[in-house]
Amino acid sequence: MNTTASPAEPRDVVIERLLGDTGEPEKVLAAARRLAERAATAIAEAINHALPTSVFVEVGEIKLGRMTDAKAGKSNQAMTVAPTKLSPDGLVMTFDPQAIAILVNLMFGGDAGRDIAPIDRDLSSIELGVVSLLIQDVARAMNAQGPDGGLGVKLPAPDAITGAMMKKHVFRDGPSARIVLTVSTMASRGTLTLTLPQRVLVSDRRPAEVETSAAPTTEWRSRFSDELMRSTVRLEASMPIGRMTLGELTGLQVGQVIELAENTQSNAVIAARGKTLFACEFGKLGQNYTVRIRRPFDSTEETIEGIVAG
Protein backbone atom coordinates (compact mmCIF):
# COMPACT_ATOMS: atom_id res chain seq x y z
CA MET A 1 0.00 0.00 0.00
CA ASN A 2 1.35 3.36 -0.95
CA THR A 3 1.24 6.13 1.64
CA THR A 4 1.62 9.80 1.01
CA ALA A 5 3.81 11.73 3.39
CA SER A 6 2.22 14.62 5.19
CA PRO A 7 3.43 18.05 3.98
CA ALA A 8 4.34 18.75 7.60
CA GLU A 9 6.84 15.86 7.78
CA PRO A 10 9.54 17.31 5.48
CA ARG A 11 9.05 20.67 7.18
CA ASP A 12 9.55 19.06 10.60
CA VAL A 13 12.73 17.38 9.38
CA VAL A 14 14.13 20.70 8.18
CA ILE A 15 13.26 22.41 11.45
CA GLU A 16 14.77 19.56 13.45
CA ARG A 17 17.99 19.79 11.46
CA LEU A 18 18.20 23.52 12.18
CA LEU A 19 17.11 23.60 15.80
CA GLY A 20 17.87 20.12 17.11
CA ASP A 21 15.70 17.91 19.30
CA THR A 22 14.57 20.61 21.69
CA GLY A 23 14.04 23.56 19.35
CA GLU A 24 16.21 25.58 21.76
CA PRO A 25 19.79 25.45 20.46
CA GLU A 26 21.04 28.01 23.01
CA LYS A 27 20.05 25.73 25.88
CA VAL A 28 21.79 22.81 24.22
CA LEU A 29 24.96 24.88 23.71
CA ALA A 30 24.85 26.04 27.34
CA ALA A 31 24.59 22.43 28.53
CA ALA A 32 27.47 21.47 26.26
CA ARG A 33 29.65 24.26 27.65
CA ARG A 34 28.97 23.18 31.23
CA LEU A 35 29.81 19.59 30.39
CA ALA A 36 32.98 20.70 28.56
CA GLU A 37 34.23 22.70 31.53
CA ARG A 38 33.74 19.79 33.90
CA ALA A 39 35.08 17.22 31.46
CA ALA A 40 38.33 19.05 30.59
CA THR A 41 39.60 18.96 34.18
CA ALA A 42 38.49 15.37 34.81
CA ILE A 43 39.95 14.09 31.53
CA ALA A 44 43.26 15.86 32.15
CA GLU A 45 43.57 14.21 35.56
CA ALA A 46 42.66 10.80 34.17
CA ILE A 47 45.03 10.94 31.20
CA ASN A 48 47.91 12.39 33.20
CA HIS A 49 47.57 9.58 35.71
CA ALA A 50 48.39 7.15 32.90
CA LEU A 51 51.21 9.17 31.30
CA PRO A 52 54.73 9.72 32.66
CA THR A 53 54.57 13.37 31.54
CA SER A 54 51.57 15.67 31.88
CA VAL A 55 49.54 17.14 29.04
CA PHE A 56 47.15 20.09 29.12
CA VAL A 57 43.47 19.58 28.25
CA GLU A 58 41.51 22.73 27.38
CA VAL A 59 38.07 23.51 26.06
CA GLY A 60 38.18 24.47 22.39
CA GLU A 61 35.26 24.81 20.00
CA ILE A 62 31.69 23.84 20.93
CA LYS A 63 29.07 23.58 18.21
CA LEU A 64 25.91 21.80 17.17
CA GLY A 65 25.84 19.35 14.28
CA ARG A 66 24.81 15.86 13.24
CA MET A 67 25.97 12.55 14.65
CA THR A 68 27.64 11.70 11.33
CA ASP A 69 29.95 14.69 11.88
CA ALA A 70 31.83 12.54 14.43
CA LYS A 71 33.62 10.85 11.50
CA ALA A 72 34.65 14.15 9.91
CA GLY A 73 38.40 14.53 9.54
CA LYS A 74 41.30 12.46 8.33
CA SER A 75 40.95 8.73 7.78
CA ASN A 76 43.84 7.98 10.16
CA GLN A 77 42.20 9.48 13.21
CA ALA A 78 41.00 7.11 15.95
CA MET A 79 37.37 6.86 17.03
CA THR A 80 35.29 4.86 19.45
CA VAL A 81 31.53 4.79 19.95
CA ALA A 82 30.68 4.14 23.58
CA PRO A 83 27.16 3.18 24.68
CA THR A 84 25.60 4.98 27.65
CA LYS A 85 22.58 4.40 29.83
CA LEU A 86 20.40 6.36 27.40
CA SER A 87 21.85 5.59 23.98
CA PRO A 88 23.96 2.98 22.14
CA ASP A 89 25.98 5.87 20.69
CA GLY A 90 25.82 8.17 23.70
CA LEU A 91 29.48 9.24 23.57
CA VAL A 92 31.74 9.28 20.52
CA MET A 93 35.43 10.02 21.18
CA THR A 94 37.66 11.02 18.26
CA PHE A 95 41.41 11.64 18.56
CA ASP A 96 43.04 13.46 15.66
CA PRO A 97 46.46 12.30 14.29
CA GLN A 98 48.29 15.09 16.13
CA ALA A 99 46.82 14.13 19.52
CA ILE A 100 47.64 10.48 18.88
CA ALA A 101 51.25 11.35 18.06
CA ILE A 102 51.57 13.41 21.26
CA LEU A 103 50.07 10.73 23.50
CA VAL A 104 52.10 7.88 22.00
CA ASN A 105 55.29 9.94 22.26
CA LEU A 106 54.69 10.68 25.94
CA MET A 107 53.52 7.16 26.77
CA PHE A 108 56.89 5.80 25.66
CA GLY A 109 58.93 8.44 27.45
CA GLY A 110 59.39 10.99 24.68
CA ASP A 111 60.48 14.57 25.27
CA ALA A 112 57.44 16.73 26.07
CA GLY A 113 59.32 19.85 24.95
CA ARG A 114 59.83 18.59 21.40
CA ASP A 115 57.42 19.54 18.62
CA ILE A 116 55.71 16.31 17.54
CA ALA A 117 54.58 16.03 13.91
CA PRO A 118 51.11 14.58 13.29
CA ILE A 119 50.91 11.02 12.00
CA ASP A 120 50.53 11.07 8.21
CA ARG A 121 50.02 7.34 7.58
CA ASP A 122 47.69 4.58 8.71
CA LEU A 123 47.79 4.01 12.45
CA SER A 124 49.80 1.06 13.73
CA SER A 125 48.42 -1.51 16.16
CA ILE A 126 50.57 -0.01 18.93
CA GLU A 127 49.18 3.47 18.31
CA LEU A 128 45.62 2.15 18.33
CA GLY A 129 46.44 0.23 21.50
CA VAL A 130 47.64 3.39 23.28
CA VAL A 131 44.50 5.26 22.24
CA SER A 132 42.27 2.36 23.32
CA LEU A 133 43.98 2.37 26.71
CA LEU A 134 43.43 6.10 27.20
CA ILE A 135 39.85 5.85 25.96
CA GLN A 136 39.04 3.88 29.12
CA ASP A 137 40.45 6.74 31.22
CA VAL A 138 38.37 9.29 29.31
CA ALA A 139 35.22 7.17 29.73
CA ARG A 140 35.80 6.83 33.48
CA ALA A 141 36.35 10.58 33.71
CA MET A 142 33.03 11.22 31.95
CA ASN A 143 31.34 8.89 34.42
CA ALA A 144 32.88 10.76 37.36
CA GLN A 145 30.95 13.94 36.66
CA GLY A 146 28.69 13.69 39.67
CA PRO A 147 27.03 11.47 42.29
CA ASP A 148 24.58 9.99 39.78
CA GLY A 149 27.30 8.47 37.62
CA GLY A 150 27.79 11.19 35.02
CA LEU A 151 26.96 10.10 31.49
CA GLY A 152 26.73 6.47 32.48
CA VAL A 153 29.20 5.23 29.87
CA LYS A 154 29.23 1.44 29.86
CA LEU A 155 32.70 0.12 30.67
CA PRO A 156 34.91 -1.08 29.25
CA ALA A 157 34.46 1.26 26.29
CA PRO A 158 35.00 -0.30 22.83
CA ASP A 159 38.52 -0.18 21.42
CA ALA A 160 39.45 2.53 18.95
CA ILE A 161 38.81 2.05 15.26
CA THR A 162 40.32 3.88 12.29
CA GLY A 163 40.47 3.95 8.50
CA ALA A 164 37.89 1.98 6.53
CA MET A 165 36.32 0.47 9.65
CA MET A 166 35.67 3.95 11.03
CA LYS A 167 34.20 5.19 7.75
CA LYS A 168 31.86 2.16 7.55
CA HIS A 169 30.38 2.80 10.98
CA VAL A 170 26.75 3.86 10.67
CA PHE A 171 25.26 6.39 13.09
CA ARG A 172 21.59 6.93 13.67
CA ASP A 173 21.04 10.29 12.04
CA GLY A 174 20.21 12.91 14.61
CA PRO A 175 21.32 16.24 16.07
CA SER A 176 24.48 16.26 18.13
CA ALA A 177 26.69 18.53 20.19
CA ARG A 178 30.41 18.48 19.46
CA ILE A 179 32.90 19.40 22.18
CA VAL A 180 36.44 19.90 20.91
CA LEU A 181 39.11 19.59 23.62
CA THR A 182 42.72 20.47 22.87
CA VAL A 183 45.36 18.02 24.09
CA SER A 184 48.71 19.77 24.21
CA THR A 185 52.22 20.02 25.55
CA MET A 186 54.33 23.17 25.56
CA ALA A 187 55.28 22.49 21.92
CA SER A 188 52.46 20.50 20.26
CA ARG A 189 48.68 20.57 20.18
CA GLY A 190 46.10 18.03 19.04
CA THR A 191 42.37 17.54 19.59
CA LEU A 192 40.01 15.12 21.29
CA THR A 193 36.43 15.59 20.08
CA LEU A 194 33.46 14.41 22.14
CA THR A 195 30.23 14.01 20.15
CA LEU A 196 26.98 13.42 22.01
CA PRO A 197 23.37 13.13 20.83
CA GLN A 198 21.48 16.19 21.98
CA ARG A 199 18.88 13.98 23.67
CA VAL A 200 21.63 12.60 25.93
CA LEU A 201 23.08 16.01 26.67
CA VAL A 202 19.82 17.75 27.61
CA SER A 203 18.77 14.82 29.83
CA ASP A 204 21.62 15.74 32.21
CA ARG A 205 19.98 18.04 34.73
CA ARG A 206 22.90 18.24 37.15
CA PRO A 207 24.64 21.37 35.77
CA ALA A 208 21.82 23.73 36.70
CA GLU A 209 21.53 22.18 40.17
CA VAL A 210 25.26 22.37 40.75
CA GLU A 211 25.47 25.98 39.67
CA THR A 212 22.52 26.94 41.88
CA SER A 213 23.85 25.32 45.04
CA ALA A 214 27.58 25.90 44.52
CA ALA A 215 29.40 28.22 46.85
CA PRO A 216 30.73 31.43 45.21
CA THR A 217 34.34 30.34 45.67
CA THR A 218 33.67 27.01 43.99
CA GLU A 219 31.87 28.71 41.10
CA TRP A 220 34.69 31.17 40.46
CA ARG A 221 37.34 28.46 40.81
CA SER A 222 35.57 26.41 38.13
CA ARG A 223 35.38 29.46 35.85
CA PHE A 224 39.10 30.20 36.10
CA SER A 225 40.53 26.70 36.48
CA ASP A 226 41.29 26.29 32.78
CA GLU A 227 43.46 29.41 32.66
CA LEU A 228 44.80 30.00 36.16
CA MET A 229 45.28 26.45 37.38
CA ARG A 230 47.64 25.74 34.47
CA SER A 231 49.86 28.74 35.12
CA THR A 232 53.31 27.87 36.44
CA VAL A 233 55.12 29.43 39.39
CA ARG A 234 58.68 29.05 40.59
CA LEU A 235 59.01 27.30 43.95
CA GLU A 236 61.89 28.22 46.24
CA ALA A 237 62.94 26.16 49.25
CA SER A 238 65.22 27.82 51.80
CA MET A 239 66.51 27.11 55.27
CA PRO A 240 67.89 29.47 57.94
CA ILE A 241 71.63 29.28 58.56
CA GLY A 242 71.81 31.47 61.63
CA ARG A 243 72.63 35.09 62.42
CA MET A 244 75.67 37.22 61.70
CA THR A 245 76.70 40.75 62.43
CA LEU A 246 77.08 43.05 59.48
CA GLY A 247 80.83 43.00 60.07
CA GLU A 248 80.96 39.21 59.94
CA LEU A 249 78.90 39.23 56.76
CA THR A 250 81.30 41.59 55.01
CA GLY A 251 84.18 39.31 56.04
CA LEU A 252 82.88 36.24 54.23
CA GLN A 253 85.23 34.84 51.60
CA VAL A 254 84.99 32.32 48.76
CA GLY A 255 85.46 28.80 50.11
CA GLN A 256 84.53 29.66 53.67
CA VAL A 257 82.35 27.03 55.42
CA ILE A 258 79.38 28.17 57.51
CA GLU A 259 78.26 25.81 60.25
CA LEU A 260 74.54 25.00 60.39
CA ALA A 261 72.54 24.55 63.55
CA GLU A 262 71.26 21.06 64.42
CA ASN A 263 67.62 21.83 63.63
CA THR A 264 68.25 23.88 60.48
CA GLN A 265 67.08 21.22 58.01
CA SER A 266 63.73 20.83 59.78
CA ASN A 267 63.04 24.59 59.75
CA ALA A 268 63.01 25.11 55.98
CA VAL A 269 60.18 26.83 54.10
CA ILE A 270 58.76 26.74 50.57
CA ALA A 271 57.80 30.03 48.95
CA ALA A 272 56.37 31.13 45.59
CA ARG A 273 56.37 34.68 44.24
CA GLY A 274 57.52 36.08 47.56
CA LYS A 275 54.82 34.35 49.63
CA THR A 276 55.76 31.60 52.07
CA LEU A 277 53.45 28.60 51.59
CA PHE A 278 54.66 25.63 53.66
CA ALA A 279 56.96 24.72 56.52
CA CYS A 280 59.10 21.82 55.43
CA GLU A 281 62.34 19.95 55.99
CA PHE A 282 65.24 19.01 53.77
CA GLY A 283 66.17 15.38 53.28
CA LYS A 284 67.69 12.93 50.85
CA LEU A 285 66.21 10.07 48.83
CA GLY A 286 68.87 7.96 47.18
CA GLN A 287 71.14 10.34 45.30
CA ASN A 288 68.58 13.14 45.19
CA TYR A 289 67.94 15.86 47.72
CA THR A 290 64.31 16.30 48.71
CA VAL A 291 61.99 18.74 50.46
CA ARG A 292 59.15 17.26 52.52
CA ILE A 293 56.16 19.43 53.36
CA ARG A 294 55.29 19.26 57.06
CA ARG A 295 52.38 21.70 57.34
CA PRO A 296 50.98 24.93 55.88
CA PHE A 297 52.99 27.98 56.89
CA ASP A 298 51.49 30.00 59.76
CA SER A 299 53.20 33.38 60.07
CA THR A 300 51.80 34.00 63.55
CA GLU A 301 53.05 30.67 64.85
CA GLU A 302 56.44 31.17 63.27
CA THR A 303 56.77 34.60 64.89
CA ILE A 304 55.95 33.18 68.32
CA GLU A 305 58.43 30.34 67.90
CA GLY A 306 61.07 32.86 66.85
CA ILE A 307 60.47 34.94 69.99
CA VAL A 308 60.61 31.87 72.25
CA ALA A 309 63.79 30.69 70.62
CA GLY A 310 65.27 34.06 71.44
TrEMBL record:
One of its GO terms (cellular component) is bacterial-type flagellum basal body. This is Flagellar motor switch protein FliM. Its main location: other. InterPro entries: CheC-like_sf, FliN-like_C, SpoA-like_sf. It is found in: Bacterial flagellum basal body; Cell membrane. FliM is one of three proteins (FliG, FliN, FliM) that forms the rotor-mounted switch complex (C ring), located at the base of the basal body. This complex interacts with the CheY and CheZ chemotaxis proteins, in addition to contacting components of the motor that determine the direction of flagellar rotation. Keywords: Bacterial flagellum, Cell membrane, Cell projection, Chemotaxis, Cilium, Flagellar rotation, Flagellum, Membrane. Pfam families: FliMN_C. Belongs to the FliM family. The lineage of its organism: Bacteria, Pseudomonadati, Pseudomonadota, Alphaproteobacteria, Hyphomicrobiales. GO terms for biological process: bacterial-type flagellum-dependent swarming motility; positive chemotaxis.
